[in-house]
Write a structure and sequence with these properties.
The chain has 346 residues and is α/β, with parallel strands linked by helices. It contains nine helices and 13 strands. The structure holds nicotinamide-adenine-dinucleotide and uridine-5'-diphosphate-xylopyranose (UDX). Its cofactor is NAD(+).
Length: 346
C-alpha cells in the first residue's frame, strides 16, 4: 500500500499503485530517476528543468508543443546527455518510460488561454487523461500544476484548500478554471480507482525571469511597460488584489510536494497581497519613477481578491516563500532589460 497521506477529507488510495520499472530496484544499474516535464519549455517549467538537472541522478524529458513556451528557455540543456526535448502536444498520447511526471502543459496567461478556449479545455482534460494513462502504465508518480483559479472569484479570504470555490461555469475564463477543476477530479479518480500516486499543487500568481515579454500577465506587462517608458495599464478598478510568488520559491515548493507523502491539493504561493494600483506604484518606484499609470477597461469575471492560506504547505512540506515582491521585481527587471535591449541608465 502507498504510505502517502491525502490532504483533508479525501479518500486515500484503495489500491496499491502500479509496479514501477524494475530499473528502480536494479543492483547493477545506476538507477536514475527519469522525470517527464510537460510544458517544460514554458516559464515555470524551464526553471523546474534547471533545478532538476542540477541533480546528476536525474534524467529529464520535456514534452512541449511550444504554444507559449520556447526552445530558447532550454537552450543550455539541449545536447546534454541527461536531457531530451520532444515536440509533443499532450492532447495526443505519449509513450515514454519515466518514474515521475510533472504535468504543467497548459497556457497560463488569460490572453493565451482565452485565444483558443476549446483547445485549452482539451489540453486540461484530454492532456491530463493522457498523462494519467501514462502514469498508470509505467507506475509513475504524477504532479498536476493546478491553480488558484479553481477558487474563482472567492467568497472567503484568504483561500484555503477546503474552499470549493466560486467559479462561473460558462464564462470566458471557464476553459481554464473549469478545465483545471476537471483535471483535479481526474487526478483523484485515477488515485482512488487505480492507485496512481498523485500530487496536486494549487499555484498562485507566479512571476520571474523568462516570462514572455508579451505574455499579457500583469507583472510582465508592468515591467515591460516601465522599461519602454509606456504607461502602466491598471485594469479597472485597480483595487482587485493578487499575491505574487517568485519563481525560485515556486519551483522549490513543487519539488517538495513531489518528493513528499501528501497528495494535496496544496496551495503554493506567496501570501503577500497587493492591489493592482499598489503593484503599479511599486514598479514605478523601483524601475521608472517617470512612468505614467493609467486606468484601462477590465475583462469579464476578473477575480476581485486572491491570497493563499499556506498553513498546509508550511506544515506538510516545510515550505514557505523567501523572496519578497520588492526583491523579486529587480531580478525580473534585469532579465527583461537584457531581452528588450534597454540597459539601465546610471
Ligand atoms: N505562472 C502562474 O502564475 C501560474 C499560476 C497558476 C497555475 N499555473 C500553472 O503552471 C503551469 C505553467 O505555467 P507557466 O506560467 O509556466 O505558463 P507558460 O505558458 O509559460 O507555460 C506553459 C507551457 O505549456 C506548453 N503547452 C501548452 N499547451 C500544450 C499542449 N497542448 N501540449 C504540450 N505543451 C503545451 C506551452 O507551450 C508552455 O511551454 C500551467 O499548468 C499553469 O496553469 C501557473
Ligand atoms: O496589464 C494588466 C494586466 C492585468 N491586470 C490585472 O492584474 C490582475 C492579474 O491578472 P493576470 O492576467 O496577471 O493574472 P490572473 O490573476 O487574472 O490569472 C492568473 O492567475 C492564476 C494562474 O492560473 C494564471 O497564470 C493566470 O490565469 C487582474 O486583476 C488583471 O485585471 C492589470 O491591471 N493590467
Amino acid at each position: 500500500m502507498s504510505k502517502e497521506a491525502s490532504n483533508g477529507d479525501h479518500n486515500s488510495a484503495a489500491k496499491a499503485p502500479p509496479t514501477p520499472s524494475p530499473l528502480r530496484f536494479s543492483k547493477f544499474f545506476q538507477s536514475n530517476m527519469r522525470i517527464l516535464i510537460t510544458g517544460g519549455a514554458g516559464f515555470i517549467g524551464s526553471h523546474l528543468v534547471d533545478r532538476l538537472m542540477e541533480n546528476e541522478k536525474n534524467e529529464v524529458i520535456v514534452a512541449d508543443n511550444y504554444f507559449t513556451g520556447s526552445k530558447d528557455n532550454l537552450k543550455k540543456w539541449i545536447g546534454h546527455p541527461r536531457f531530451e526535448l520532444i515536440r509533443h502536444d499532450v492532447t495526443e498520447p505519449l509513450l515514454v518510460e519515466v518514474d515521475q511526471i510533472y504535468h504543467l502543459a497548459c497556457p497560463a496567461s488569460p490572453i493565451f488561454y482565452k485565444y483558443n478556449p476549446v483547445k485549452t479545455i482539451k489540453t486540461n482534460v484530454i492532456g491530463t487523461l493522457n498523462m494519467l494513462g501514462l502514469a498508470k502504465r509505467v507506475g509513475a508518480r504524477i504532479l498536476l500544476t493546478s491553480t488558484s483559479e479553481v477558487y474563482g472569484d472567492p467568497l472567503i479570504h484568504p483561500q484555503n484548500e477546503s474552499y470549493w470555490g466560486n467559479v462561473n461555469p460558462i464564462g470566458v475564463r471557464s476553459c481554464y478554471d473549469e478545465g483545471k477543476r476537471v483535471a483535479e477530479t481526474l487526478m483523484f479518480d485515477y488515485h482512488r480507482q487505480h492507485g496512481i500516486e498523485i500530487r496536486i499543487a494549487r499555484i498562485f500568481n507566479t512571476y520571474g525571469p523568462r516570462m514572455n515579454i508579451d505574455d499579457g500577465r500583469v507583472v510582465s506587462n508592468f515591467i515591460a511597460q516601465a522599461i519602454r517608458n509606456e504607461p502602466l495599464t491598471v485594469q479597472a478598478p485597480g483595487t482587485q488584489t493578487r499575491s505574487f510568488c517568485y519563481v525560485s520559491d515556486m519551483v522549490d515548493g513543487l519539488i517538495r510536494l513531489m518528493e513528499g507523502e501528501n497528495t494535496g491539493p496544496i496551495n503554493i504561493g506567496n501570501p503577500g497581497e497587493f492591489t493592482m494600483i499598489e503593484l503599479a506604484e511599486t514598479v514605478k518606484e523601483l524601475i521608472n519613477p517617470e512612468v505614467k499609470i493609467i486606468s484601462v477597461e477590465n475583462t469579464p469575471d476578473d477575480p476581485r481578491q486572491r491570497k493563499p492560506d499556506i498553513t498546509k504547505a508550511k506544515e506538510l512540506l516545510g515550505w514557505e516563500p523567501k523572496i519578497k515582491l520588492r526583491d523579486g521585481l529587480p531580478l525580473m527587471e534585469e532579465d527583461f532589460r537584457q531581452r528588450l535591449g534597454v540597459p539601465r541608465k546610471n
